[in-house]
Design a protein that fits this description.
Layout: E1 3-8, H1 12-19, E2 24-29, E3 34-38, H2 52-58, E4 63-73, H3 76-89, E5 96-103, H4 109-125, E6 129-131, H5 141-146, H6 149-152, E7 153-161, E8 164-173, H7 176-182, H8 198-208, E9 215-218, H9 225-232, E10 237-241, H10 244-258, E11 268-272, E12 284-289, H11 303-324, E13 328-341, E14 344-347, H12 349-354, E15 361-363, E16 372-375, E17 382-391
Parallel strand pairs: 5-6, 5-7, 9-10, 9-12, 10-11, 12-13
Antiparallel strand pairs: 1-3, 1-4, 2-3, 4-8, 7-8, 13-14, 13-17, 15-17, 16-17
Helix pairs in contact: 1-8, 8-9, 9-10
The protein binds S-adenosylmethionine.
S-adenosylmethionine (SAM) is lined by residues 193-194, 196, 219-220, 222-223, 225, 241-243, 246, 274-276, 290, 292-293, 316.
């Protein structure tokens, strides 16, 4: 069975939790943001003309790129020979564009290995190749994407472990241009609301892991980020918001991006509703939502403001969950705010989980006993704590 090396994003634990629903993990190295996995669950619900690997990556928010593992080599010469062999076997045309990224290989590895590889290529195969790495540095996704390295070149990933080298060839890389289109270039954005990054929207959907025929619902849809990501993954989706203007803007954003991302405008339905009074006849499927993170003052909140926000948000979730008791919502993945006051971090998850006894929902253990993950950005006043609730009788074990 093929094995793959994943390069994870800047929150490797969350990336790992997301990947867990899509492949079997063999090894995880948190400090390096690397994961080895196998048995990838490829999906192509909308029959898009892309490689299965690229489609697999396109729906993941927490993985930057990944490579197919080609083998384990035991010295640099063997590594060089294997890379040359792989390139030749793939019969590239024209000048060859080539990059190598390394982990645990030592500071000077790329500085000597790359020129040697280039020379060996010329000597053995009488062909020129262009090395695309900046001197001594790993490639980043932007360079691979901008240089079309997966279409007309090669990137090899090398991870040294004591006496051996694991070699992989990159097969999929995140599409940065598409993320920008779905983020900063959406027609309607509201900076006062805080913008949910599309990658986090993907992670929230993937943590809920909807079946192909399930509807993805965001009852706090704001500008519609989660609905757009759900439609791109091939799901039917519902977005609602207490604010009629936002429900309307979400619909407009959704329609604006439909053609570019080749989903049906009709796959999304939008309306105004309080999350605690959602129309139960439509509540069939999973909820993936950023939720309400409290009043946004565009600055750090003081203790009193945090206390007031906490009470409001707790009340809102208690009412919403109690209302959903009679619905067919199987899983709810959502964010709760975490505020920092001095050295203290104020989180609501524990309090909310304690109130779940009265409901049929229970927090899902994402892995290693962890029920929540923090997603924070250095410049943000509020961090997001990600949680997943499931029906008590719906635990996949
Ligand atoms: C953090 S924003 C969500 C932003 C959204 N994820 C996006 O991508 O644009 C929270 C949203 O919750 C909505 N909201 C607040 N209270 C609500 C309630 N009781 N029911 C439904 N929506 C509510 C707000 O109008 C706001 O649009």
């Amino acid at each position: 069975m093929k094995k793959y090396l994943f390069i994870l994003g800047r929150n490797p634990l969350l990336s790992r939790a997301e990947l867990r629903n899509f492949c079997d993990e063999i090894l995880f190295a948190e400090d390096k943001s690397l994961l080895i996995g196998e048995n990838l669950k490829f999906q192509n619900p909308r029959n898009l003309p892309k490689t299965p690997e690229q489609l697999f990556l396109d729906r993941l928010g927490g993985t930057i790129r990944f490579g197919e593992i080609l083998g384990e080599l035991f010295n640099e010469k063997e590594l060089q020979n294997e890379i040359l062999k792989q390139i030749q076997s793939q019969k590239p045309e024209g000048k060859i564009h080539l990059g190598v990224s390394g982990w645990d290989c030592g500071k000077t590895f790329l500085r000597h290995f790359l020129p040697e590889l280039k020379n060996a290529f010329r000597t053995k195969h009488d062909r020129n190749c262009r090395i695309v790495n900046s001197p001594g540095q790993n490639l980043d996704s932007g360079q691979i994407f901008g240089g079309k390295l997966l279409q007309k070149g090669f990137e090899f990933l090398v991870w040294k472990n004591k006496n051996s080298w694991l070699l992989a060839q990159t097969v999929a890389n995140q599409n940065l241009r598409n993320y920008t289109l779905r983020d900063r270039e959406k027609d309607f954005r509201d900076p006062h609301m805080g913008m949910l990054p599309p990658k986090l929207a993907q992670i929230l959907i993937n943590l809920a892991n909807p079946e192909a025929n399930e509807v993805v619902i965001d009852p706090f849809c704001g500008s519609g980020t989660i609905n757009i990501e759900a439609a791109i993954c091939g799901y039917q989706t519902i977005g609602s918001d207490l604010d009629p203007k936002r429900a309307d803007l979400a619909q407009k954003n959704f329609s604006q991006l439909a053609e570019k991302f080749r989903y049906e405008v009709g796959s999304g339905e939008f309306f105004t509703s309080d999350a605690a009074k959602l129309p139960l006849e439509k509540m069939k499927g999973i909820i993936a939502t950023e939720g309400f993170l409290g009043a946004n003052f565009g600055r750090k909140l003081n203790k009193e403001e945090v206390r007031k926000n906490s009470l409001d948000i707790m009340k809102l979730w208690e009412k919403t969950l109690s209302h959903l008791e009679d619905s067919n919502i199987r899983v709810i993945s959502f964010c709760l705010p975490v505020w920092k006051i001095g050295r203290e971090e104020i989180s609501l998850a524990k309090n909310l989980f304690a109130k779940l006894d009265k409901t049929s929902y229970t927090p899902r253990v994402l892995f290693s006993q962890r029920k929540t993950f923090l997603y924070s950005r250095p410049e943000a006043f509020v961090s997001r704590e990600i949680c997943v609730l499931e029906r008590k009788n719906d635990n996949p074990g």
